[in-house]
Amino acid sequence: MSKFKKKSSEGQPAISTASLPDIVFMLLFFFMVVTVMRQNTLMVQNKLPFADQVEKLDKKDLVMYIYAGKPSPRYQQRFGSEARIQLNDKFANVGEVQQFIFAERETKREELIPYLTTALKVDEETNMGLVSDIKQELRKAEALKINYTTKQGEALQNMQ
Amino acid sequence: MARRSAPEVNAGSMADIAFLLLIFFLVTTTIETDSGISRKLPPWQDEEQDPPVIKERNIFQVLVNANNQLLVNEEEMEIEELRQAAVEFLDNGGGTGDEACDFCQGPADPSSSVNPTKAIISLVNNRGTEYGTYIAVQNELVAAYNQLRDREAQRLFGTSYTEMEARYNDSRTSEGAKETLKERIELIKDMIPQKLSEAEPTG
Predict the structure, then answer these.
(1) Number of independent structural domains in chain B
(2) Which of A92, B38, B112, B179 is the most exposed place for a label (fewest CB within 10 A)?
(3) Which residue of A has its CA nearest to B66?
(4) pLDDT digit string (tens) for A68-80?
(5) Is B21 domain-assigned?
């Protein structure tokens, strides 16, 4: 008789799934380790523009984040569709930026204050008027180191 | 009676539990972007200051309007051409005597810049300009500076400027190597300083 028939007559041995939990756990630990929980829940649309001349921000704890963009769809009824600034977990006016910077500085050690960087995470459709208002406020608060957070990519994609 | 052997715990559902957790972490993971274009803002000044006198030939003016169109030195330009135009302007090297530029490779056009140390790029945008466009323009201008710096670093030290900066910021580089790198980076920065001035937006 042929080989195949012979085998099937004996019944196929079941594939052992005993190592499946191990594999899954390995993946689980990988994701647990790489996951960085977001500090802030985003309340604005945040489609970052592309750029390729980028520098990396290495010290995460020395970065202050300012978000700006149109409110997300579920907030649009309450806050309208005009671009807004988001500081921590709430919408803010331009005037509150300075306060935010001072409050952030309070939480840091004194010798680290000169190294603080402000990362601007601004939606690509935002008008420059808002962004330059933020920049003026940052100048007044003497937070002069800024970083326009961008995605890695060809900058020409922003124009389409 | 002898002790009974404990019944084996069924581990069959272990995989399910692990899968559940795995899917939870998969869904909640957001890869945060943490790179971008770094800039330094000028300090705040209370009083209006008289602008310093700069020869017109040393200014490369970039205007962006509310429709995201570019006007470079009073001529319309597409963003694709901006980088090359900026490089040509910076690298012109039209100076003589004290202002001479000994490494520039430009045509020494008398209507363009004298020396990269004197050349200033002025960027003015409208309040209605889209942020994406602004970043694209910034990116192209920074790229123009980096291109020239890379070229000079390649000529002087046989390595590119961006490479040197990356090595300088790498924590694995030894202190001694960092010292020389810093010196070299400073030298290149002195040769081709990034003079990018931004005016307050119009309209």
Answers:
(1) 1
(2) B179
(3) A127
(4) 998 988 888 888 8
(5) no
